[in-house]
Amino acid sequence: MDKRTLKDLLYEQVARIGKAVSSPKRLELLELLAQGEKTVEALAAELSIDIKLASAHLKALKDARLATSRRDGKYRVYRLTGSDVAGLWVMLRQVAEEHLLALRLALDRMVADPARLASVGREELLEQARRGDIIVIDVRPQAEYATAHLPFARSMPVAEIEKRLTELPTGKEIVAYCRGPFCLLADEAVALLGAKGYRIRKILDGVSEWQAAGLPLQTAVDE
Amino acid sequence: MDKRTLKDLLYEQVARIGKAVSSPKRLELLELLAQGEKTVEALAAELSIDIKLASAHLKALKDARLATSRRDGKYRVYRLTGSDVAGLWVMLRQVAEEHLLALRLALDRMVADPARLASVGREELLEQARRGDIIVIDVRPQAEYATAHLPFARSMPVAEIEKRLTELPTGKEIVAYCRGPFCLLADEAVALLGAKGYRIRKILDGVSEWQAAGLPLQTAVDE
DNA sequence: CTTATATTCAAATTATCGTTAGAATGATCG
DNA sequence: CGATCATTCTAACGATAATTTGAATATAAG
Q: What is the pTM of this model?
């Protein structure tokens, strides 16, 4: 085998990963799977697509070895093959944010109220949470919180906020986070609690971004 | 605009980056451009493809804002839009190496003589090079060395090795590197110098891998 | 076993992409 | 000006991808 054929083979393999991440739907699936394993049904519902289409895209991710699946009772559960896959998603998004103006503009339009963005650095946020100066709430579904969450964060799914208001102290500032910069759950929480007079801000980080930055998480196995 | 439409827009933008890195040829171009800016002609020659095809792929990279170009006399010179793009290439390759068995097998077959692989860690290599215990040679073309190279490395393009043998001490161990794990230049150097009795090994790192690991480089602006 | 549910498989359609080739256009250098 | 380098446009072919639809399969629950 000559050099050229060999090289073609190598780059072709890497391109398989590239192909897997060249579809918007598959990227969204990756982001969801980065929050923890999920059934095909749940994924399809979240993306508002047909189950069969979701299954096809998941198969593409599986063929590229970015995801794998197991059966759980009636359901089939998918998960990422490693944390490096979540890291790849974060990196792709960061490169896109850095270089594609259209993306930055769309993101700016998403953040309803820029003043609601917490402007502190990650380490500082961590320190404030450790001291109890702020309350960090994870507004994703409880199952995702259980898989992994930011240190000192408490679970407060956005769907349950209204009936669990008593758990939130009114005095301290609340910082909400969800799945990452593309996720709107934290915005909902900000709108909800802001209207009720709470001092609440959001951060753009999700657990993947947090981990990609080299910071520790609290995971299921830790507890 | 409803949530779904907005989200589709966001993921679509990131998918533009994914599409750009879903072609073997474009990945090879990225790797070459990570070594420094290059003309279309040089890139086409390195890939053994037609200039028009190279131009088309470079346009795709340009459209995705991963590369940009400028005119230099008769030539048009392309370069990456940032070091994060080189980092993306490294990450894609790492994920592929980690998860795709076919790639690992192909890579194993590439390394002619595993015994020729330096087994020391990056920091240790750096320390040995600093103390002068080993000689680190950069066997890429001189222009790539000039753009950025490993600390303490000296330029020794593989094409010039035979007529510059006197510059290499016979007593010390020599460590060669080139563009990264997919590059064969260091293997050529190992074969060449090994046959002449030198104690020579190679490492798989190139400057992109070195930088992605958070280690310092010597760049043109440093000097 | 039978039924309901969840998932995959297969086929078909439409669209897009990679590649090659020829010809025309621009820009630059000597 | 003529020569070189790069891009664009066109056309064409084959390959691949996204999506939808209908059939087939596997598993769990009754």
A: 0.90
